[in-house]
Amino acid sequence: MVSSRATAMTDRIRFILDGQVREPAGVDPTQTVLQYLRGVENRCGTKEGCAEGDCGACTVVLGELHRGEVRYRAVNACILFVPALDGKALFTVESLCRGGEALHPVQEAMVDCHASQCGFCTPGFVMSLVALYESEPAPSRARLDEVLAGNLCRCTGYRPIVAAAREAYAGGGGPRLAAQQARLAELLRSIRRSDTLALEHGGRRWFAPVTADALAELLLRHPAARLVAGATDVGVWVTKQHVEIETAISVASIPELAEIRETPTHLEIGAAATYTDAWAPLAARWPDLGELLRRLGSQQIRNVGTLGGNVANGSPVGDAIPPLLALDATLVLRRGPERRELPAGGFFLGYRRTALRPGEFLETIRVPQPSPRRLFRAYKVSKRFDQDISAVCGAFSVELDGGRVAEVRLAYGGVAEIPWRARGCEAALRGRPWTEAAVDAALPALDAELKPISDLRASAAYRRAVARNLLRKFQLETAGRGVPLRLAAVGVEA
């Protein structure tokens, strides 16, 4: 049962900075960590370049307990709200070398390899590489490129930065932050909350429940509250559009909503599971979906952004949605103690309008396990390879029976006001041989139902052509005549 017990309000949070517990008062729920660091802590190494999580100049590292150990991840301070620090450890570039300590191995290597010119972006690069250095022992060149894709530099051309990353590892100094892990873990346990954080300041409120039951209760009491996880979208609303969020409820502190469970029939992904955590199980089952998620945003964004948030905000350009439609995923929605399950395709009602009722939230995404009969592909077409919104995102699955189409699902995102399935084209393909001729015959049905938009990313005519050609590409690949296109990051070594 969901109780109606009120939660005591506070204006304080608790987090760790440089090994010391901080408990600032008067915390504005929508102040960004970047604003706090520069305006309150006087830590100006963290820079503002874009204020939307693209350039990486604001990158900091968060440490948090995960299965009894401290896990380090890089995040964008420019769109992370200060209350999200509660219960975590924060590291800035100033944290790496204090009181006469030696430079961190990454910093030493950046100096030795002349990897900084104007220096504006350098602290962000350092922190991205520090998070990697403290977490992964021997990253490949491809992994280095992936981590650095969220940091932009106009001076160095990246070669000396990559060289610095390699030299840091070659130096053999070993992790610096992890060497203090036992004490940090003890501090993190000492500030871990067992009940809801209820923050209020200046007429704005931030709630961070620690159980799904508490979340359900809060949403019944505050049905108009803005639900956030990593706030990678909402953060931009605040920094760029100056939207005022009166009440926000964070799901990021609810362990059960971050769980990823496997059943004989489904992979069940909690709505608060980050892209970083969901990537491996999804990529292992559907490699194309893994590649799509890898390109969804920077490492910093994927470390806090969630698959559930990508779905629940109802955006037509959410890259995770077309694959979920093509794979016949379902969504478990909860309101109070009651749950209902509906197909992912029935969730989107209009531009940023969903089937969520007042006080209801997305709890779990259920994706059917792969079938030997189901062939699946996902494609993203965008102006930039990394960190760009799709002009067209297509995800398709087909089940063949003796060379004929037994079942087919064709899903598109980025072309209309909602992500949608081309049901008319699907009907035209069912029962037909899986051939180019069959696809050609079905394309008029796709043209009839496709109502693409024109915007700054692409014209309607371009989107129509791409949608048609992606379906052709899917047929060629799954019929055994095409070679799957696997684009690697620029500069990946053979």
Concise overview:
The chain has 494 residues and is α+β, with helices and mostly antiparallel strands. It has helices spanning 33-39, 105-112, 122-133, 141-148, 159-170, 181-191, 212-221, 234-241, 275-285, 287-294, 299-304, 307-312, 321-326, 423-429, 436-449, 460-478, and strands spanning 15-17, 20-22, 59-66, 69-76, 89-91, 197-201, 204-208, 226-228, 247-250, 260-262, 266-270, 330-335, 338-343, 348-350, 353-354, 360-368, 374-381, 392-401, 404-413, 420-421.
- The CATH topology of the domain at 255-368 is given as Uridine Diphospho-n-acetylenolpyruvylglucosamine Reductase, domain 3
What does the largest sheet look like? 5 strands, mixed
Average pLDDT, to the nearest integer? Answer: 92
Radius of gyration: 23 Å
For the termini, the CA-CA separation is 57 Å
Strand order of the largest sheet: 2-1-5-3-4
